[in-house]
Automatic annotation (TrEMBL), chains A, B:
Keywords: DNA-binding, Transcription, Transcription regulation. It comes from Paenibacillus glucanolyticus. This is LacI family transcriptional regulator. One of its GO terms (molecular function) is DNA-binding transcription factor activity. It holds the Pfam family Peripla_BP_1. Gene3D superfamilies: 3.40.50.2300, lambda repressor-like DNA-binding domains.
Length: 344, 344
DNA sequence: CAAAAAAACGCAAACGGTTCCACTGGAGGT
DNA sequence: ACCTCCAGTGGAACCGTTTGCGTTTTTTTG
């Protein structure tokens, strides 16, 4: 069928071993033989069978990325595209392939990742999200498989991971609003079991506390990473007797919903309500008004994650050296928070 | 190291062949043996080695999707995320894995796809874009590898492909604008070597012709699938002595740029200029004003593509039955084109 | 110039499965 | 009681590579 190493060997009058050694340019192959074999390979259209190779070498030169539980919801987010782009670019650059997998629920995720790792189809995994108590992490950890987490785990603080300092990022964002004179600052959060929601909430609270401002329960709502969440949050906030004048929002996508809600209720951004959110996906600058956002370097997160993982799996002694890579963030101030509250 | 079929066999007191047969539940294995072997597999934590399996079965149960040339630009688009989501979902559902690959340029794409297919790492490929003269298509076609095209090829009309009827879609969109009373309708196109640009332009032209309207060269601009393109198009259009009153725009992302340009120049949408674009990515409904868009069922495109490909590779006699799947489109009319031109 | 060292290459055993073919034992047919 | 047939299983070759070790050839060296 397809031309194998043996065919090449026969044609070149050498042994298969020699051909193999030419392939991996082994030091003890003569210039001459190497040249000749390569020529014949070219001529016969030889391509190494990757499966056979990984069978014996016990390494697949590929990694997988596990999409979070409700891929249907979250996948919509530009966030993941950016991340994947970073991962794929880096991986391909290092000669690795990337395999994408998703599961309808956490159990299916575990099954998928088990099939992939246990079946030796991939060398390692990248997890795009860290839930509070993640079965996938448990699995990977207990089987001692190489993996890197984009985010962080509370249960295992010492994992190989790449993350944003979300507490600090939220702190900075909140402080920015405070510096504009706001005293009543609300927070629109994501799913409470996501570490990222918790961290950002924490930074928000810390900034308020440091400024001597009160943090009111009714100024905090939880939701999903969906536009609807922002929209619903608005009808709630705006019916309050005492409304927040500024909002920290857990994700840009939610901000879009907030924007729409505010618009429909007749409020102006930033005059009536100033807002700032996280991730700085493209499009934040295109909304009206353009959204202030904390750029967390998504592409970079993916790129770094891939790099860290591949470095680990390449390491022969397979010791996963735990390390937390923190990707720097920075505030992108745009119109949605370019308004200082008049002193009243 | 890891528990193999032989370990299980030994422990169960049967031969490896039998274990293998249990795995693929071969008809001629007794209930009893099957039960027992399965029990032992469970107990020992056996997982089949996928590489070994594909080495002999010559099938990998995985496909790859090739990201278009400048992944860095286009990847940004929500379009691809939706598509990939559809592909991955369907593939996983059919027990297939999906491998993502990108290349810096067309040659690298060919190399990647060659490595993957020739190296027997994947069974088939999905191409996300059809350029005018695509080397990847040439490669796949001439090597007789199974693949499906999302889009269409002019060179080979008879490929397995899934597509939108872009001519008709553009026709419908344009006709919609005409029905609102517009006579001066412009077109913002994408890269001219992309079939999709050409088709949409064709439909646009056809609708104009059918309505007896003129199609002026200066009302057509070409660009990229980028916001900037839309932005630039606006400064051009709006400096024309005779400006179009409505625009058909090749992609939603470009519309966002158009919107910004128009906003900065002080024009109102839809009163001064009505616009409609293609793809209906989420966020079209969130812009101000919400964008009219032709929904082309992106997720469905991906889902169908994956289905078609897997069906093909599963077919033993590997004959790729050419077929064009057309995914239906539909107009989503929103505020950006909800304005009838006053009779003047 | 012989011996030792180095260089270049071949042999064969893996890697973990699948599958064709052969073998066994019991059921059914005559 | 003998033959046939078939369900159930085992044996062994093979898929296409890699690699440790041994063998041959060449070069170096005393």
């Amino acid at each position: 069928m397809s031309v194998t190493i043996k065919d090449v060997a026969k044609r070149a009058g050498v042994s298969p071993s020699t051909v193999s050694r030419v392939l991996s340019n082994h030091p003890r192959i003569s210039r001459e033989t190497s040249r000749k074999v390569k020529e014949i390979m070219e001529e016969m259209g030889y391509h190494p069978n990757i499966m056979a190779k990984s069978l014996v070498s016990k390494t697949t030169e590929s990694i997988c990325v596990i999409l979070p539980k409700p891929a249907e919801e979250l996948f919509l987010n530009l966030f993941f595209m950016e991340l994947i782009r970073g991962i794929v670019t880096q991986a391909n650059r290092s000669g690795y392939d990337v395999l994408i997998s998703s599961g309808g629920n956490e159990k299916e995720e575990v099954e998928a990742v088990s099939r992939l790792l246990n079946g030796r189809r991939v060398d390692g995994a990248i997890l795009l999200y860290s839930r509070q108590d993640d079965q996938v992490v448990d699995f990977l950890k207990s089987n001692n498989y190489p993996f890197v987490l984009v985010g962080r785990s509370e249960k295992y603080p010492d994992l190989l991971s790449v993350d944003t300092d979300n507490v600090q990022a939220a702190y900075d964002a909140t402080k920015h609003l405070i510096s504009l004179g706001h005293k009543r600052i609300g927070f629109v959060s994501g799913p409470p079991n996501l570490i990222v929601s918790q961290d950002r909430m924490k930074g928000y609270g810390k900034a308020l506390a440091d400024a001597g401002l009160e943090m009111r329960k009714e100024w905090i709502v939880e939701g999903e990473f969906l536009q609807e969440s922002g929209y619903r949050a608005m009808s709630f906030f705006m019916n309050l007797p005492e409304r927040p004048t500024a909002l920290v929002i857990v994700d840009d996508i939610v901000s879009f919903g907030v924007l729409r809600g505010l618009h429909e209720l007749g409020y102006k951004v930033p005059e009536d309500v100033s807002i700032i959110s996280f991730n700085n996906i493209s499009l934040t600058e295109l909304s009206t008004p353009p959204l202030s956002s904390v750029d967390i370097g998504i592409y970079n997160l993916g790129y770094t994650a891939s790099q860290a993982l591949i470095q680990t799996v390449r390491n022969d002694d397979k010791t996963v050296l735990p390390h937390r890579y923190i990707i720097p963030h920075r505030l992108m101030i745009r119109e949605s928070s370019m308004y200082s509250l008049p002193k009243s």
